[in-house]
Design brief:
Elements lengths: L3 H16 L1 H6 L1 H10 L3 H17 L3 H15 L6 H22 L6 H15 L2 H17 L3 H18 L2 H17 L3 H14 L3 H11 L3 H15 L3 H18 L2 H18 L2 H18 L2 H17 L3 H17 L6 H15 L2 H18 L5 H15 L7 H17 L2 H17 L3 H12 L9 H13 L2
């Protein structure tokens, strides 16, 4: 027998449902509350789900988590059944994605949600739900740095996409493969995956539909990472052009999480290109979006890139505390992906500040993470910076075998990855060392060989520096 209070809530809910369709559409959480208080969990769960999905459509991710969590809690009052499992699966998908947006891809709350969803998919899931869960699991492991496992998960995703012959699933699966390749240092393979997705599967309505299930718009994620791959492969102008097109698209589609993602990758690209003002501008915009929307991961990386921009502008003392704060916040969310790059940047800052012990510690951490996670995309730069550090510490800077060995290792690593960008930078370090040793002819030949492979980007900082060094090496 229901109490008078429960009867009162039931009556309110039923009147709203029957007579006020506008309220049902715009305030489903109101009906969810009244059906919950009325002791009608099945009805309430449906409205909590509707409310959560509506909040997600407005990018109100924290609000969505609240609604979906309330719905999930009510499931405990229902008897086990396939219908109950199906409803739980409907709640878990958007809940996992909302956690990703608010807490970050690698947050501890994310994995249990997707793991439970994967269990349910085996019994009641549809192909779209199953793939969305597969993608969520891959994202969690990727940002935690489990790249060897992610290589296997990406293959699983591609195979699933082929079995379904669904363009939307295929585009997301290509992102899984391309992103994994990029961070493992297969820049040519990454470019192929990203370019394939953009050319053959990018459809605005399709990517908008999938953004509900993934938190990101695939048109943004593919293009932003494609730009980084192009930079590595020796096409800096094309990289910047691709990034600008991506940023324009990110602003047009009006999806806050994707725009924050775009600003993160813009800052990353310009940090690679060594254009401090652009790094700081992207970091500032990304941090503002992250703060307004509650995106913890992008708030952390925004703080880091603010420091990175200051470093490029020569403001080392101001840069270091911001870099440290960004790294600390990044790690607090469980993330490790790109941490090797962050320690490389921090090591460079300490090197410039003359804090050599701290520089060693940062670079060694970066190299250790690269080895542990198979995150090879920054390994060449870490080796180069380690060489620069050994060189400046050497009692005879003009003859440091250890520094030269690190430069050579950096060059070989970059060459094996087809990263012309890292190869050029490491070759400049080696050429300057050889110049001090009176080996200018060897230095000129080595640098000319790499510089000559470029057909664009001659106004970018690295190529301007290389051209100036070649001139200095020419008798």
């Amino acid at each position: 027998m229901k109490s008078k209070r429960q009867q009162f809530h039931q009556r309110i809910a039923e009147v709203l449902e029957a007579r006020f369709p506008q309220t049902v559409q715009t305030q489903p959480e109101l009906l969810a509350h009244h059906f919950t208080e009325a002791g009608m969990p099945a009805k309430a769960i449906g409205y909590w789900l509707t409310a959560g999905l509506r909040s997600r459509q407005r990018s109100a991710e924290i609000e969505a988590i609240g609604h979906l969590t309330k719905g999930r809690a009510l499931l405990e009052t229902l008897d086990p059944s396939p219908e109950r499992d199906g409803r739980e699966l409907e709640l878990l998908g958007p809940l996992g994605v909302a956690y990703v947006a608010v807490r970050g891809y690698a947050a501890p709350e994310v994995e249990p949600v997707f793991r439970r969803a994967r269990e349910l998919c085996e019994g009641v899931g549809q192909p779209l739900q199953l793939f969305a869960v597969m993608l969520g699991i891959w994202e969690w492991h990727t940002v935690r740095g489990d790249l060897r496992l992610c290589g296997e998960l990406a293959v699983e995703g591609i195979d699933f996409a082929r079995s379904q012959n669904d363009p939307g699933i295929t585009m997301e699966a290509l992102f899984m493969r391309g992103e994994t390749m990029l961070h493992r240092g297969d820049f040519a393979g990454a470019r192929e995956s990203f370019a394939d997705a953009v050319e053959h599967y990018d459809d605005r309505e399709r990517t908008k539909f999938w953004a509900v299930h993934t938190s990101h718009d695939a048109g943004i994620t593919h293009r932003s990472n494609l730009a980084v791959a192009l930079w590595h492969l020796g096409y800096p102008d094309q990289a910047i052009a691709a990034n600008r097109q991506m940023c324009q698209l990110a602003r047009e589609i009006g999806h806050p999480y994707s725009l924050a993602y775009a600003m993160h990758h813009t800052a990353w690209l310009y940090q690679l290109c060594r254009v401090g003002s652009e790094v700081r501008a992207a970091a500032k915009e990304g941090t503002a979006i992250a703060a307004a929307q509650g995106f913890a991961l992008w708030r952390a990386t925004g703080a880091f890139f603010e420091g990175g921009g200051l470093l490029l502008e020569g403001k080392v003392a101001d840069a270091i505390p911001r870099l440290l704060g960004g790294v600390e916040a990044f790690v607090a969310g469980g993330a490790e992906l790109t941490l090797s790059f962050q320690f490389a940047t921090l090591g460079e800052a300490y090197l410039q500040a003359g804090s050599y012990a701290d520089a060693h510690q940062a670079l060694d951490k970066g190299l250790a993470i690269a080895q542990k996670n198979d995150e090879c995309c920054h390994e060449a730069e870490l080796l180069r910076l380690k060489g620069e550090l050994l060189l400046v510490e050497s009692p005879e800077p003009g003859s440091s075998p250890a520094a030269e060995e690190h430069f050579q290792r950096a060059i070989e690593k970059a060459r094996s990855q087809q990263s012309k960008a890292w190869q050029l930078r490491a070759t400049m370090s080696l050429a300057r060392l050889w110049q001090r040793q009176g080996r200018s002819d060897e230095a000129r030949r080595a640098l000319s060989a790499v510089f000559g492979t470029y057909q664009e980007g001659f106004a970018t900082p690295d190529l301007l520096e290389a051209a100036a060094l070649l001139k200095a090496l020419t008798p």
